[in-house]
Predict the 3D structure of the following.
Amino acid sequence: MVVAVAFDDDAEAVREFADGITYPVLIDRQHLLSELYAISNVPTVMWIDAEDNIVRPNSVAFGVDMFTEFHGIDPEDHKNEIRDWVRNDVVGIDAETARTAVDDLSADEIDARLEFRIAVELRRSGRPDAADVHFAAAAELAPVDFTIRRAMMPLQGDDPFGEAFFELYGEWEAAGAPYHGIPAKR
Amino acid sequence: MQLTIIDDEARVIDAHVDGDRVLLDPADFAVAAGWEVKPEGFCQGEVCVPMLAPTDVLIDGRVDLFATMSALDRPVLAALDDAVIALGQRAENRDHALRDLRAAPFELPDLDGNPHRFDDWLGKRKVLVAFSTW
């Protein structure tokens, strides 16, 4: 089964994406999973077997092809790999590689997640100016983490598909394109 | 003072702020952080973490929030000027996922607000997809 978890604040915005989908689509306003599994960008996919072992840890994989032109990743590859796992038990990664594939969060990256959570709560309780202070602190602690920097764009009135995003993307590339997990095959 | 404590969700509780300490009644602590104070230690359901030095975490019957979070190996970030405190996850849970490759359970709502628990899907292969609209 598929379980989709949205790092979003507004359930109605997510609903457009979830239209017609029959598997669980959950909303994670606190980005709990970004802390529990050291997730630093979306989409991040992991495969978990029936005994709750992670057989394939955090990986960049796209389920839809709307951004293929931009990132050059073919979603069919991932769908075929899932079929191969379900039918033939092929996971394509050995356990030793899986165990070292995801770097732990640094202390700053953890604090950034907590600052982000505080900002989200302040915004929700009608204190946007106080929220901005904590969004800024989060951004300073984790400057190229998309679950912080890009996630805060719509919450601060910035376009997450506009200039601010392309600036962030440039900063991320300049920093060596860091990702907590297995990067995309291109 | 009233504090908002953010754990899996944000909850407003009464707290006693004493210098650098934030002290909570055990019942409020249980609501805010999900751990009950029992004779055997801090308990979450069946799981208990013993209090090695109760005098460090209990002050006049109140729970010292920062000392307790530290004892439970949970990060905490306080914005006391804004009356908000965020609690992080036990580092051990993430370590189990990253190094032991054991899934870390969670509970999250769907878009209609109905809770879903990771344990509901036991015995099934899962493709967990973290995504966003941004």
Summary: The first strand of chain A starts at residue 2 and ends at 6. Residues 35 and 110 of chain A are 7 Å apart (CA to CA). Residues 107-174 of chain A form one domain. The longest helix of chain A spans residues 107-124.
